[in-house]
Amino acid sequence: TQLLEQSPQFLSIQEGENLTVYCNSSSVFSSLQWYRQEPGEGPVLLVTVVTGGEVKKLKRLTFQFGDARKDSSLHITAAQPGDTGLYLCAGHLNRDDKIIFGKGTRLHILP
Amino acid sequence: NAGVTQTPKFRILKIGQSMTLQCTQDMNHNYMYWYRQDPGMGLKLIYYSVGAGITDKGEVPNGYNVSRSTTEDFPLRLELAAPSQTSVYFCASSYETGWETQYFGPGTRLLVL
Question: Could you list the residue range(s) of the whole structural domain that residue B67 is in?
C-alpha cells in the first residue's frame, strides 16, 4: 500500500504553460515536504509545509498543504525547461517518524 | 562543506559478490539514512541511524547491513549481491528527523549481473 499517491506520474507540457501536480493520502501527516530530483543527482528539498491550509511560494512555484493535512499540491506558473525533473512529495506521520516518499511525478517542459 | 559524498558512483557486481557503499557527511548531522530508488518506485528506506553506534532497520533492510562508528560515516554493506539489488542507492543526512531537511548525496548506481 502506497501511503502517498502522486499524480500524474508523467507530465509533458510546453514552456510557458501552467501545471499542477498532486500528492494525496488517506492518512494525516504532521508535515509534508516537496523535493526535486534531476537526472543523476540526489533529491533537493524545495519546501516543507506543516500547518493545514498553509500556502508557500517559491518564485513561480506555489505549494499548498490541505486543510486536513492529508494532501498537498504543487502549482508551477509559466513553466520553464529548467523545471524539468522528478518531483517527490514526502511526509512524516508523526514528528519523530521516518519520512515516507511518494513515487514522484516526472515533469518534462518542452522548449 | 562538501555535504554528503558517496563512493563509488557506479559499480557492476556479479551475483554472490560483496561490496560496501561508502557515505560521508561533513555537516555534523546526527541522522543518516540509506535509500534505494528503483525506476518508478520512489525512495525506499533501507537503514537509518540516529547517531554514532545506533542503527535501525527501515522498510527494506533484507540483504544489507550498516554500521555507524563515527558521526561522519555510514557505510552500507551488501554481503551476497542479488539481481534484485540492482538499483540507485542514496545516502542522506539531517540534523534531526521530523521537519528537518534531508541532504542527499549524488547516489551510487549498482548493477548486479
Answer: 4-112
Number of domains in chain B: 1
Q: Nearest residue on chain B to A102, judged by CA atoms?
A: B42
Distance from C-alpha of A65 to C-alpha of A86, rounded to nearest angstrom: 19
Contact A40 B107 (CB under 8 A): yes
In contact, A90 and A32? CB cutoff 8 Å: yes
CATH number of domain containing B39 = 2.60.40.10
What is the CATH number assigned to the segment(s) A5-110?
A: 2.60.40.10
**Rounded CA Rg of chain A:** 13
d(CA A8, CA B48): 30
User: How do residues A37-61 score in pLDDT, each as one tens digit?
Assistant: 998 899 999 999 999 999 999 999 9
B61-113 per-position pLDDT tens digit: 999 999 999 999 999 999 899 999 999 999 999 987 766 789 999 999 999 99
Distance from the Cα of B85 to chain A's closest Cα (Å) equals 18
Mutation for testing the B interface, residue in A35, A92, A99 having most B CBs under 10 Å: A99
- Tell me: pLDDT of B39 over 60: yes
Q: What share of chain A is helix, strand, coil (3-state, %, to 5)?
A: 5, 50, 45
In chain B, the percentage of residues whose pLDDT exceeds 70 is: 98
Say what percent of chain A tops pLDDT 70.
95
Gap between the Cα atoms of A32 and A34, Å rounded: 7
